[in-house]
Structures are given as C-alpha cells and as structure tokens.
Design goal:
alpha/beta, 31% strand, two-stranded antiparallel ribbon, 8-stranded mixed β-sheet, Dihydrofolate Reductase, subunit A, single chain, globular
Length: 170
Amino acid sequence: MTIPLIAVAALADNHVIGNDNRLIWRLKTDLRRFRALTLGRPLIMGRKTFQSIGKALPGRYTVVLTRDPHFGAEGVTVTHSLETALAAGQDLARQHGADAVVIGGGADLYDQTLLLCDRLHLTYVHAEPEGDALFPAFTRSEWLETLREDHPQGPDDEHPFTFLDLKRRI
C-alpha cells in the first residue's frame, strides 16, 4: 500500500515561496502549522532547503534530495534521485507508522512532485514579494477544497494569510 504524499508550502499570492534561498516573511502561526503537519512524518526536501534550515528538524524523518554526490548531514537520509527519495519516504513512513510522506520544498521538488501529491496544505500569504523561487502553477479544478481559514496580520504574523487544504479529485 502506498502511503499518501502531501505537499506543505507557504506561498505568496504571486506564488513566490522564497528569495536567495530564504523565507521572505515571518509568520509564527504558519510555522506552528508546518510543525503540526510534519511532526512524526518523513519530510522530503531539497538540499538547498535543508541547508537554509541548517539541521534536521526534530521529530521528523528527514530525507534530503541532492545532485551533490559528496553531500552528507547528520540525522538525515541523503538520496540522489526523486525515485529514491520517495521510496525512502515510504519506507520511513512504514517503519514509524506515519500516515503520510511530506514534500517540504523547495521549488524544484514541488515542481517534480506536484502531480504525485494526494493533498496540498498551502498557506497563501497575502503579499506579492519579489522572489526567485516559485510554487508551481496547478489546475485548481483538479483539487477539492477541504479547509479554508483566513487569518489577519497580527503581532506574530507580518501579513494576512489563508490556510488552504486541497485533496486531489482525480
């Protein structure tokens, strides 16, 4: 049995997700949601995303996908192909009883896996910043909205935002 693949991402209204390999907003509420959605699950990310975080996140089983044959990091599973990364995520999910495998970025990995994802957990940040990393465009009609929560800008959040959960229709 294949364990569901989900993508978790925060993207601006113009689909920007980052600039110069870093986040471009401060949203504590979204970080708490990211933690809740990834805790106890395999988390697949690209090398640059991993390096921007700087370490394996506690309570997750981190799989790093990289083309760099010399890359290594403590506490992570390093893979060199998408197929190997996805297989490692499935194996880790089975070993640890996780109900999903999470795609956690960056832009290239989202682009490569979007058609494979069963669910999307998106945070739409209501801003239009400049950036060099974009979440891929997708056909909205292929997805069923299962959750929408609007949040105002506040002391812990630089911008208003909307949590949007989508489940693949097809």
